[in-house]
Hints:
CATH topology of the largest domain: Nucleotidyltransferase, domain 5
Structural class: alpha/beta
Helix content: 40-55%
Radius of gyration: 21 Å
Order of helices and strands: HEEEHHEHHEHEEEHHEHHEHHHHEHHH
Number of domains: 2
Largest sheet: 6 strands, mixed
CATH class of the largest domain: Alpha Beta
CATH superfamily of the largest domain: Exopolyphosphatase. Domain 2
Number of strands: 11
Strand order of the largest sheet: 8-7-6-9-11-10
Amino acid sequence: MRDLRRYGTGTLDRNGSGAGVVARGPTTGPPSGARGSRRAARDGQGAQIYAALDLGTNNCRLLVAEPTRRAFRVVDAFSRIVRLGEGVSHSGRLADDAMRRAVDALAVCRDKMLARGVTRHRLIATEACRIAENGAEFLARVREATGLELEIVNRETEARLAVSGCASLVDPAARSVIVFDIGGGSTELVLLQSGEGGFGSPFTVQRHVAEWTSLPIGVVTLSERFGGVEVDRDTFEAMVEHVHTALTPFAARVAHHARFDHEAVHLLGTSGTVTTICGVHLGLDRYDRRRVDGSWMRRADVIAVTERLLAMSYRERVSNPCIGADRADLVLAGCAIFEAIRRCWPCERVRVADRGLREGILITLMTDDGVWRHFRRGRGYRGRNAAARVGQGGLRGSRP
């Protein structure tokens, strides 16, 4: 773990225009700039600043936040499609161009963390790095180029973090919930079962995990296998069947735990696929997280959007404001994964979460640090002890 100050802070975005920032909190809060934030942390006057980074098969995402009395406030964010796992399902290796794109995005993330004075963070890599022969080599390259220490998490950790990140969207009146996260290289599914007292607090939802699985199938790997630019109905059905077959063992385990009732069980999806489908359903002229996150869709709505996307040409998908060029060749593979899940569990309702791993990381870190215990005791949370644990040498690698 190294002192990142020698790398400099650079700019908040290499494009110089704020491109890629998907969320931002109010301008009040910690002092602006890396030096001001670090000084406040040293003096015990600034709140602890947390960061969560998720480097997936398709995307590189960062979230920077500070605790509030009931949750946390986002102070900076970044998202860029890097397609790190492009071709890895065929070659078994991360490609040079893909690694370059990822390193460039990670350098932006590093600059943002330094500029915001981050004192506690967890930086994870998922399926592409898990399966690539040169995954460890790539992490060493990242460390040398950016100073960031990434950890490759296992599939169970990925599934549980996804559940933590969207737990507040679970319907407390539901008997069971099937949470799914469709990624670029893998898809995680978790069965949650309520107890006699229901699901209770979002912070305790992980206690209700009854079954989980991770399929080595995601939008990138599926589109590379079946094609993503020109997708006819036969190709789409072949994709659905491929995923459905992989889901069968998990579906059998779920059946042992819960009697399916399409009214008492709901789906909870956290992924670009589900948020894209919701954006298209809402007819948004521009993707708007505030309208998508937490939305409910009916079964008929999902079917209608899937049919609509299947009828579109590739160019029409590119021109749709909720899809665009970066997702146009992946969205139907995502729809096929979603359709296979829906056919296994034809729930009447699905809730849409534009949140997931990063939020799960932040909640886990803050819970481990006792953030909300401090607030409940009326003392606020200034992060003095945490700052001392991290040390005074700038941004350093840490994990819960």
